[in-house]
Amino acid sequence: MSSHFSLQGFFHPASVAIIGAKDDPNSVGGRPIFYMRRYGYTGRIYPVNPKRVHVQQLTCFPNLNSLPEQPDLVIIAVSAERALTAVEDAVRAGAKSIIMMSSGFGETGEAGRALEQKIIRMAQAAGVPLIGPNAQGIANFSNGAIANFSTMFMEIEPEDGPIAIVSQSGAASVMPYALLRQRGIGARYLAATGNDADITSSELLLAVLEDPEIKLVLLYLESIRETTALASAAEKARRKGVAIVALKSGTSSRGISAASSHTGALATEDAVVDAYFRRHGIYRVSDISELAAAAELYLSGRSPGKGRVLTMSHSGAVGVVCADAAEQMGMDFADLSDDTVCGLRDIMPAFGAIHNPLDLTAGLLSDGSLFGRALELLCDDSNIDVIHIGMPVAGPGYDVNGFAQAARAASDRSGKLILVSGPQLSVLDHFKTQGIPTYQGDVEALGLLHQYIQHHRLLQQQIPQAVTVTELAMPATTLPCLSEADSLKLMTDLGIPVVQHARCHDLDRALTAFSQIEGKVVLKACSPEIPHKSEYNLVWLGIESQEALVEAFNACHIKLRQLGFPADVIVARQESGRREIVLGARRDPVFGPVVLIGDGGKYLEVLKDYLLLTPPFTAVEVLDALQQLRIWPILQGVRGDQPANLQRLCEAAVQLGNSLIATPAIESVDLNPVLIRHDGELVVLDALVTRAPEPTNSDN
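Structure (tokenized):
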């Protein structure tokens, strides 16, 4: 609704009024007052309650009109029945912003949604930004402006830090906060927006990104209504070097239902969210605890470079476990350079094997300097980007404090990321004191490092501009689907190879087409009214003679007359190949065009070996995506098979995505199957293009 610059008033108010103020610090109307007084807010606090003279030792006012000034921020902590009047009062009093903690609106059903919309229209007409309703509130821990009623800040003292938490859920905002604080990490901003009815979580995300000290944002979403602000925020974060880690819930049918009842909005298809987040450099996690888990890595200030990792330990078992885990995750374990191998051979015990993972052996107990000297050599190796140190046990006799100092010195000198894992908190504390990220589990540490590396790669990708594509000429028809012939023609216009075929109005044309096509042919009905011909048994395969063609043609027309569908037929070459893949695109109502690519054929929905991309994207990105599929080895060619023409496939995906951007009349494109022939070339065997519905007055 508002420019994110105007939203700074939520986090930096000079004065705060609380409608529904209470003496009880454990009430919704009492906690914000208690928190602001306890945590150093220096602005003016105005409790508003006509039944009280004082609230928490502050002068209480009967209404907003009796305040000595126009409040920067008004918190509404009254029932839904009184909320409309409270918003009217706030608008009349000249409030600059409103946080509505009251619940009982869009999250409860149609009646609540209607009241919510009435309130939002009132606030928007007055130009007053509103967070909520059903909002737990916001907090700025750097200045004590805690307009929030969570009990968490009673239990766990806040501390300022370079992290912002933005959430549509109250609980999902304070849980990562608690996990951060337990790890000794502070957060500056926390925002729980509730129903996102006016100011959205994405707009608040833009607002917190104005702070140059924010380095990491943790984002929890249950619904995404529109993407403009989120895309702007993601691009702003990318430019500023700020990482966004997000949890988008509502992925199951029950989760979608729960999210809808929770926030009053429909959840979005999960695979599309994945594609959208990847496109915009947002790393998606699957659990609230994962939001904060890798925070130390993001705040380390160290780049993971190309992501080539080395594990060093004084336990061979730790090294084996880490090597296995890294391979399963697809991590790149570094190869030691010849110079590093020679240097390590000079300092290592003779029985120590010199490779990655590197086992310092029990010799570390008798020679503590081995730790620092080995680290120096490893940090000088240009083949290594990240060093993971496994500390399975360290007690008396081990110079743990010296190890930690050596790790910090090596990291500072080389600029390389070093992290440590081990079960003993007393050991990890030495490294933590030196600013080295620490984790209790070895595999946990590698998993979070893998996340950090993957996210770094996402952020290095620049969103390409769409290649200029002329809007496709759509056939003049009011039907929702194009015929297969018209669909194939559009693909030909895009330069995507399609099967040799002919559209035939009569038997003579069908016989001519048969004579011009080498080998067996397929005959099938061709009508925009019959998008799925096989469901009506309107496909004839393996036609080798004119007699068989005539028989199929007549049978097809008999069925069409019985069904009441006027239609032509298509005569097409019957292709053979080794694998069917799928290529398609559709226009998502929230996220816009998305392209699907993956293993195809009739088992597409069962195998689910596919992914989505949001255009514009490059052929290189498509190739990277294909390597994530289980079908990838087959595409490369196995047991003497020719590799698929991957360049042609990637270019087709790019063209398909760009065509949806350029042609708003297209709703979806389904190319299934796309056959990989025995020579590796690709050919589209079937195509279905659907038209986008005409916009209604409500869409304008």
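The longest helix spans residues 442-460. Confidence is low (pLDDT under 50) at residues 1-5, 255-268.
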